[in-house]
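Hello,

Our lab assistant flagged a job as stuck in the queue for most of the afternoon. It eventually completed. Since we weren't sure the result was trustworthy after the delay, we are filing this so someone can double-check. Below is the sequence as submitted and the structure that was eventually returned. Let us know if re-running is recommended.
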Amino acid sequence: QGMMFGYACDETKEYMPFAIYTAHRIGQRLGEARRAGLLPFLRPDGKCQVSVEYRDGRPVRAHTVVVSTQHTPEVTHGALKEAIIEEVVKKVVPPEFIDKNTVYFINPTGRFEVGGPQGDCGLTGRKIIVDTYGGYGRHGGGAFSGKDPSKVDRSAAYAARHVAKNLVAAGLANTFGTAAIPEDHIARIVREHFDLKPAGIIETLRLKRPIYRRTASYGHFGRVPDGHYFTWERTDRVDELRAAANLGRRPEAH
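-- returned structure --
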């Protein structure tokens, strides 16, 4: 038995909550800055959190940004903080979301010279909330990484994301309580247009391939579909879902 959930909303063009999507991109930028030698004092371990202020249900500003990153012994905290804010955070967070009151906590607990498995034990599971929606939506509790696609903790969570993203992209709903048609109609349409049996999920999303290394960092969702990778992020059912809901074709983007 198990519970798997999918979620999507229109806060970003990737149909992800703004806070977790931005946190993932900050983490990605940390890695890019380290590998490119832009910030040569960085080391591989790191994590971040973004707290967002909402007005009328929409994100309007980054209230607090926390970044903790492993570093070499010689860098000072002042130099580290300035570099992370200017070359990482501000390169990712849209400028209209940053103001003079945005709070930055950069390595707030002090020196971070020892990281990775040497600094933390416990390698059998991933942090399931940062892997998914950052606390938005729901989570059944099962980690993804380390499991093959016959384990529905992984494959069914991917399928649920595929369903949710296509429903939101099709305009049938947007987060909780926003259905454009009765929810029982949406449930019927999902059953008719998605094969959610374990074997059907594996076949539809082509999960029996060596595609999982890229999911080990920067989240499993909100990623760009790329060939064989992140097939669950495709919005390939939008037109058929709109037709089934009698909504017509999706308006062209301007």
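-- support follow-up --
The delay was a queue issue, not a problem with the job. The result is valid. The chain has eight helices and three strands. The chain has a mean pLDDT of 93.
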